[in-house]
Amino acid sequence: MEVVLRFLLFLVGAAAGIGFAYMQLRKKAEQDVRLDSDKLLKDAEAKAENVKNERILQAKEKFLQLKSEHEKAVNERNQKVVVEENRVKQKEQTINQKLDELKKKEAETEKVKENLTILTDANKKKQEELDKANRKHQEQLELVAGLKAEDAKAQLIESLKAEARTQAFSYIKDIQEEAKLNANKEAKKIVIQTIQRVATEQAIENSVSAFPIDSDELKGRIIGREGRNIRALEAATGVEIIVDDTPESILLSCFDPIRREIARLSLHQLVSDGRIHPARIEEVVNKTKKMLEEEILEVGKRTCIDLGVHGLHPELMRMVGKMKYRSSYGQNLLQHSREVANLCAIMAAELGLNVKLAKRAGLLHDIGKVPDEEPELPHAILGMKLAEKHKENPEVINAIGAHHDEIEMTSMLSPIVQICDSISGARPGARREIAEQYMKRLKDLEATALSYEGVTKTYAIQAGRELRVLVESSLVSDERVAQLANEISEKIQTEMTYPGQVKITVIRETRAIGYAK
Q1: What is the DSSP string of 442-475?
Q2: pLDDT at position 257, please?
Q3: Exposure winner among 54, 351, 480, 516, fewest CB in 10 A?
Q4: Secondary structure (DSSP) of 366-393
């Protein structure tokens, strides 16, 4: 028991010691915590004070920077204001100087006006004195002559009239006698000139083709060294090639349209290929001839198939294809023959005749216009002989030969072919343009050129193939002349329709006239 009590006492003492120690430790810990919190508070307060001081310093620096920038901007504005004020002062000075000069000039002009009024008054007085002297002189002359001035003028006029009448009568008599002597000769000239004017358009359309080129440099290559290329091309095609001042264009002149077409296609291939020399020209022309012959035969076959004409001799079929490159009074011969064939078929069907033979006769009626040779025979007779040669039907042969009354009609098809030929050629627009359209085209040409500033007169000549434009030398310069020609040609090209090409010639000249009295 004693041991237990001692043990219990020991435990109680140990517990009391532990409790005391715990209390001591707790007090110490609370003191340490208080010390740490005070220290942290002091540190935080110190840091806050430092941050506050730094922010205040930064704000002061920013304020000073903004203040300096503001002062700088104000100084710059002040400088600009000073500059503007100086400029305004200078302008005021110059304006004042000009006003002073104007005042001086006004004073001078006033003096000049005063001088002029004085001079005019003096001139009026002198003029009055001269008039008085002239009246006195006239009165003295009337006294000497015994006639008044008006009577003398009337007598002089009457004498001049009588003399003029006698001279006019003598001139009229001489002119009438000369006209009687030259009437026949002049009539022939007029007829020939009329034929020339009427035939010009048709001849140009049937004998000349224009070949366009990209630039004038190609003209030199087409001509070749010493003209070798152009001579080789003319010899190979039989076409005259005209290289003149026409911009970007070459003229092919020949009465045979097939040869013109061969020359045109050959030139196109040579220009596209770029190799232009005599050997190459001959090779290309031969290839083009073969190609065109094949195309002619193909056109003839296709035309016969389209019209339903069967069993036609190959040579006649080839001639039908050649019609594509012929024209009659500005009308394409193949289109004309197709029209006549269709019209003949319609008329034959209405009359109960053979439609196929009528269509055949209509297609072949102008076959004499495309022979391989050129005999001195009318085309109707020549076509009839060609049809006989190739064993055509007798009714077709008679219709071909009689459609212009060269032979007697023996078949009902012959008058039908003749009538349909006239219908196809006489319909509006089939052949050359009527006189009203022709005159309107000439007037439009002249009006187009007159619309430009500085143009005084325009003349359409050569049946509308050339336009002469006269300009005022004071309004149009030499440099403007070429530009004006190009502008007029472009406007005509875009706004008008015309056959062939139109040459525009702009003329500018200065004239000075003097009279010796």
Answers
A1: HHHHHHHHHTSTTEEEEEEEGGGTEEEEEE-TTT
A2: 76
A3: 516
A4: TGGGS-SS--SS-HHHHHHHHHHHTT--
